[in-house]
Predict the 3D structure of the following.
Amino acid sequence: MADDSIDPIQYRRVLGHFPTGVTVVTGLAEDGGPVGLTIGSFTSVSLDPPLVGFLPMVNSDRWPGMRSAGVFCVNVLASDQGELCWRFAKTGLEDQFAGVEWHPSNATASPILEGAIAWIDCSIEGVVDAGDHHFVIGRVLQLEHVASESEPNALLFFRGKLGEFTQHE
Ligand SMILES: Cc1cc2nc3c(=O)[nH]c(=O)nc-3n(C[C@H](O)[C@H](O)[C@H](O)COP(=O)(O)O)c2cc1C
């Protein structure tokens, strides 16, 4: 084990070759207002029981407030929602939700973003420390996707850039 020898720039560059979807994980801030974070580390975890997970940084400003509320909703972004990806990745925006259309979910009141291709509404089941990130495990309470007839396409992140899925013929 020689993790001291791993150069952080090389780590980022190599891991950037693994493409991810892009989600905005939303929740409720301490004042009860809406809050959201752009997250690429979202993953399904377990079907029985239904669990999902994601990894926020330990020094995230917004995560502690969301954690206190005990709930979150994962919004899977569509290929035309790149602006939301960058907006929710910014720290210190006065009003992150200005001009963003959303409604509260039934189960947790977390924001569901208009135009997201799928959402997964969760309660926090557990949080495991994982280096400079937390691994947050959520119990799925409710979930939905947009109708497939509307042919939604997912936003993808690869080598630091946004793009979209193209199916092989
Ligand atoms: C495509 C993309 C994916 C991201 N994925 C993650 C992630 O999985 N975990 C994380 O902590 N930050 C991730 N970030 C960065 C956070 O969105 C950003 O650091 C965070 O919003 C800072 O918020 P804060 O105000 O809570 O500190 C990602 C950013 C982008 C653009």
In short: The chain has a mean pLDDT of 95. Residues 22, 37-41, 55-57, 60-63, 85, 88-89, 91, 157 surround flavin mononucleotide (CB under 6 Å). The chain has one domain: 22-159. The radius of gyration is 16 Å.
